[in-house]
UniProtKB/TrEMBL annotation, chain A:
GO molecular function: metal ion binding; oxidoreductase activity; quinol-cytochrome-c reductase activity
Locations listed in the record: Cell membrane
Domain Cytochrome b/b6 N-terminal region profile per the UniProt entry, residue ranges: 27-253
Gene3D superfamilies, per database record: Cytochrome Bc1 Complex, Chain C (1.20.810.10)
Protein name: Cytochrome bc1 complex cytochrome b subunit
GO CC terms of this entry: plasma membrane
Membrane topology: Multi-pass membrane protein
Naturally occurring in which organism (per UniProt): Cryobacterium luteum
Requisite cofactors: heme
Keyword terms of this UniProt record: Cell membrane, Electron transport, Heme, Iron, Membrane, Metal-binding, Respiratory chain, Translocase, Transmembrane, Transmembrane helix, Transport
GO biological process, alphabetically ordered: respiratory electron transport chain
Catalytic activity: a quinol + 2 Fe(III)-[cytochrome c](out) = a quinone + 2 Fe(II)-[cytochrome c](out) + 2 H(+)(out)
Enzyme Commission number, as recorded: 7.1.1.8
Automatic annotation (TrEMBL), chain B:
Molecular function per GO: 2 iron, 2 sulfur cluster binding; metal ion binding; monooxygenase activity; oxidoreductase activity, acting on paired donors, with incorporation or reduction of molecular oxygen
Record protein name field: Cytochrome bc1 complex Rieske iron-sulfur subunit
UniProt keywords, alphabetically: 2Fe-2S, Cell membrane, Disulfide bond, Electron transport, Iron, Iron-sulfur, Membrane, Metal-binding, Oxidoreductase, Respiratory chain, Transmembrane, Transmembrane helix, Transport
GO CC field: plasma membrane
Annotated family: Belongs to the Rieske iron-sulfur protein family.
Gene3D superfamilies linked: Rieske [2Fe-2S] iron-sulphur domain
Locations listed in the record: Cell membrane
Role of this protein: Iron-sulfur subunit of the cytochrome bc1 complex, an essential component of the respiratory electron transport chain required for ATP synthesis. The bc1 complex catalyzes the oxidation of menaquinol and the reduction of cytochrome c in the respiratory chain. The bc1 complex operates through a Q-cycle mechanism that couples electron transfer to generation of the proton gradient that drives ATP synthesis.
Topological relation to the membrane, as annotated: Multi-pass membrane protein
Entry-linked PROSITE patterns: RIESKE
One Pfam family it belongs to: QcrA_N
């Protein structure tokens, strides 16, 4: 193991130039004398980043965004964000002579009259799908490894906002071509907004610039899609990454890894080569997908018209959970009271989905409150070592997955020859009961895995070799783990349920009671890390193990 | 559960000398004094490229070959741009253009990426480095200085002392964005009332039912038993301005059924004509077109959220998230035998809204 070495720091730039001469050195000197960039190189050039495949998920998200910016900029040169009616005169024969908006017509031109235009459209769309997916997986990684703990709670919130903004970018972009599918998507949004009490009718009226669909919405979404939302996203990504630099990256438990260090490769050269290369790999894979697989073939759908619709309509995947939630509402959830309509079939969806995502956002603060843990955490948890958190995550994933599956209820019914009602009722059940089941199973599995780890640490792996001792006794030979592997299994934080203690006035507050209840729920069942005494004791118990060494 | 049987001495994080960062006595973290000790880094294992000079040369060759391959890919993409032009009205040419430019670019990108990663993994030093971490919070002197600066600024400005100035400033800052909010009223036309608009459609007494999208009027005699028509009001097809807005409210589905299958309420018996019924096509859930008609069950299905409506029973909801039946358009036949509307819908069509009673 080497320690960090920095050689750039103390040399006088002028001396450096004399020594090495050459263009690179004088160019570097020229820039440094005008920017003092050498300081940044000194600070960041050998900064350590740990290596793990799961750390690449965030990188995929970042790189997808860069790909989206590049391909999107190309598209803006050709796309016309106008709903003015034109007659399509492009190369795609089946739609020739059909009136459509300039938005749809220019999207058709990008697809059928500009060389490489379809490719860029498909790169843009595929990269957008990947962007949201990568953010989602990145969030799951952060959640299940406890990377959101102090000091990273605020960065979790920033990342969460980015996830929401990514979905907003996706939806606004999806709506721009003004084709039949996107128009129906907007129609659903219009219906949703109209269902909001008091302000809904007016919000829809203002958003669409009059009655639905109007002639304003594409232009307005375009402003959001290419100006406002990307600007906020770029600013938040910059903050997100700045925090990564300030906090230094987390690392998985391993021999030599502590809460006070970070172990990995320096930015220059290894990390730069790997991360830079990875950008090109992600870009290349998106390009390959865009070369082979059509996405959003608007020419099959035709221009938006409020009357026709095709069966089996599907939103882009990341909107699925919200669309699915709408499908799961039972019939009749709407009532009129005091001359006003209360659309529970819409409100319940908005409230439940809203509560779900707000819970995701504030989860780090909830857990911090329950544990009362004010320490910084830079070593990640293996998911099994935080059984209740992992189980809550599994419950959340199950809930989301049920809603998401519901967005394809009709496709499932037709493909698997099921009744529509049967699919919906089943998914209603999995949405309500699935999370509880997932919680129980996951928690037990985590505890079992922790017990297994304990067994391995104390008694080693079962080798399968049975040996007969001279005294006639049979014993199984256990293969002990080495100390490096063992450290991975025993180094995790341990908590015990909160003990209720009266405060200075001799009282126990209601919030403390809630906290104690939650704490018990979290930590009642716990497998403590193996201690030195236990290890020594276990080794004393197993003569066969010792003789086998 | 190994909760109590491990015999180790438990202390909370707050009293643990090892946990310098723990500050709160409320923490439920357990720090045991008898924990195993971090064994430190395992010995470094050299790679094959470190041990075998031949392998190192092989990796080097692979990396620069990949970078050359990338150049080939880029050149191929440029060549494909020229060699596979888009020919008007030939979708196949679009496909080839897309495929070959894309393949060239994919090759160019992937070869750079794989080459760089391979370089990093096989040839660059694989000795890991270690950075020390420090608490994220500023050091005590820095924090003290920050507090001092704020206090000084407060004193020099009188922000805390001159409360009238401070409060009036806060007030001004709260109020000044309000005009911007008001400006957004202009997003919608000033001379229209959305509620009134939602209550009316193009249909009125005597308007002929015409085919969507051609606008051809429909004779009752042409509507055969079991058939269904997508219908718009006469005049809509020729409209320029506002056509889609009107269509989004006025679209109708016309169905002829055996009159014996229809279960009609007493006061709506006159709304159908000889088994021909007309219903709004706009879903009462969130407004998708309810365009799928199942002929033998007489059910209408909304493809967006699977609400189902029973045409035999005034299009009442039989499944799905919608609550209200599809509004019925009262129809009749004029002197020439064409289907006409008796009036507008008797209730607002489409999704529910707050002001709807």
């Amino acid at each position: 193991m080497t320690t960090l070495t920095t050689r750039e720091s103390t040399e006088d730039p002028a001396v450096g130039v004399k020594k090495s001469g050459g263009f690179t050195a004088s160019a570097a000197n020229y820039i440094d004398e005008r920017t003092s960039i050498s300081g940044a190189v000194k600070e960041l050039g050998r900064k350590i980043f740990p290596d793990h495949w799961s750390f690449l998920l965030g990188e995929v998200a970042l790189y997808s965004f860069v790909i989206i910016l590049l391909s999107g900029s190309f598209l803006t040169f050709f796309f016309q964000a106008s709903m003015a009616e034109v007659v399509y005169e492009g190369s795609y024969a089946p739609l020739k002579g059909i009136p459509m908006s300039a938005a749809m017509s220019s999207t058709m031109d990008i697809s059928f009259d500009i060389r490489g235009g379809l490719l860029m459209r498909q790169v843009h769309h595929w990269a957008a799908l990947l962007f949201v997916a990568a953010i989602g997986l990145h969030m799951l990684r952060i959640y299940f490894t406890g990377a959101f703990r102090k000091p990273r709670e605020l960065n979790w919130v920033i990342g969460f906002v980015l996830f929401i903004l990514a979905m907003a970018e996706g939806f606004t972009g999806y709506s721009l071509p003004d084709d039949l599918l996107s128009g129906n998507g907007l129609r659903i949004i219009d219906g949703l907004i109209k269902g909001i009490p008091v302000v809904g009718t007016w919000v829809s009226f203002l958003l669409f610039g009059g009655e639905f669909p109007g002639t304003d919405i594409v232009g307005r979404l375009y402003s959001l899609h290419i100006l406002l939302l990307p600007a906020i996203i770029v600013a938040l990504i910059a903050m997100h990454l700045l925090f990564v630099v300030v906090h230094k990256h987390t690392q998985y438990p391993a021999a030599g890894h502590t809460n006070q260090n970070v172990v990995g490769y320096p930015v220059l050269p290894v990390y730069a080569a790997k991360a830079g290369g990875f950008f090109f790999i992600v870009f290349g894979v998106v390009m390959l997908i865009a070369s082979f697989f059509t996405i959003n073939p608007i020419w099959n759908y035709g221009p938006y018209d409020p009357s026709p619709v095709s069966a089996g309509t599907q939103p882009d995947w990341y909107i699925g959970f919200a669309d699915g939630a709408m499908r799961l509402i039972p019939t009749g959830w709407e009532f009129v009271w005091l001359n006003h309509t209360y659309s529970l079939n819409i409100l319940v969806v908005l409230i439940v989905v809203g509560l779900f995502i707000v819970t995701v956002m504030i989860y780090p603060f909830i857990e911090a409150w329950i544990t009362g843990d004010k320490r910084e955490h830079h070593v990640l948890d293996r998911p099994r070592n935080a059984p209740t958190r992992t189980a809550i995550g599994a419950a959340g994933v199950t809930f989301y997955a049920s809603l998401w599956a519901a967005a394809s209820s009709d496709i499932m019914a037709t493909h698997f020859h099921l009744t529509m009602e049967g699919v919906i009722h089943t998914l209603q059940a999995t949405t309500l009961l699935g999370p509880f089941l997932a919680f129980l199973i996951t928690k037990r599995v985590c505890l079992a895995l922790q017990k297994k780890d304990r067994e391995i640490v104390l008694h080693g792996y079962e080798s399968g070799r049975i040996v007969r001792l001279p005294g006639g006794e049979f014993v199984e030979v256990h293969q002990p783990v080495d100390e490096y592997e063992r450290w991975k299994l025993v180094s995790y934080s341990d908590f015990k349920p909160l003990m209720l203690r009266p405060n200075a006035q001799g009282k126990i507050g209601a919030t403390e009671k809630v906290r104690a209840g939650l704490s018990r729920w979290f930590f009642e069942d716990r497998i403590t890390p193996v201690t030195q005494a236990e290890l020594d004791h276990a080794h004393g118990d197993h003569p066969a193990e010792i003789t086998d060494k | 559960m190994a909760k109590d049987d491990n015999g180790a001495e438990h202390v909370t994080a707050a009293d643990s000398p090892g946990a310098q960062l723990a500050t709160s006595a409320a923490s439920t973290a357990v720090v045991t004094r008898d924990a195993l000790v971090n064994p430190g880094f395992p010995p470094h294992r050299p790679r094959i490229t470190d041990l075998d000079h031949k392998e190192e040369r092989k990796a080097e060759r692979a990396v620069y070959t990949l970078f050359y391959v990338s150049i080939v890919g880029s050149v191929f993409a440029i060549a494909a741009y020229m060699a596979f032009p888009i020919v008007a009205e030939d979708p196949g040419s679009v496909r080839l253009n897309n495929l070959f430019i894309g393949l060239g670019l994919s090759l160019a990108l992937l070869a750079i990426g794989i080459g760089a990663v391979h370089w990093g993994k096989a040839l660059m030093s694989d000795h890991e480095g270690v950075d020390e971490r420090h608490p994220v919070r500023g050091t005590e002197p820095v924090r003290a200085r920050a507090v001092e600066i704020f206090q000084q600024a407060n004193e020099e400005s009188g922000f805390g002392r001159r409360t009238l100035i401070r409060n009036s400033l806060i007030g001004a800052l709260v109020v000044f964005p309000l005009p911007a909010v008001v400006l957004f009223r202009g997003l919608g036309p000033m001379d229209q009332d959305p509620v009134a608009l939602l209550n009316e459609t193009m249909w009125k007494k005597g308007v002929r039912l015409t085919m969507d999208p051609s606008g051809t009027p429909i004779k009752a005699a042409d509507v055969t038993l079991g058939s269904s028509f997508h219908v718009i009001p006469e005049g809509l097809a020729e409209m320029g301005h506002g056509r889609l807005e009107e269509k989004a409210k006025a679209a109708v589905l016309l169905i002829r059924m055996d009159p014996e299958d229809l279960v009609e309420e007493e006061d709506r018996k006159s709304w159908s004509y000889d088994g021909i019924v007309a219903y709004s096509k706009i879903c009462t859930h969130v407004g998708c077109p309810v365009a799928l008609y199942e002929q033998h069950t007489h059910h209408l299905l909304c493809p967006c959220h699977q609400s189902q409506f029973d045409v035999e029973n005034h299009c009442k909801v039989i499944f799905g998230p919608a609550k209200r039946a599809l509004p019925q358009l009262p129809i009749a036949v004029d002197a020439e035998g064409y289907l006409i509307a008796q009036s507008d819908f008797t209730e607002p069509v489409g999704p529910s809204f707050w002001e709807r009673a």
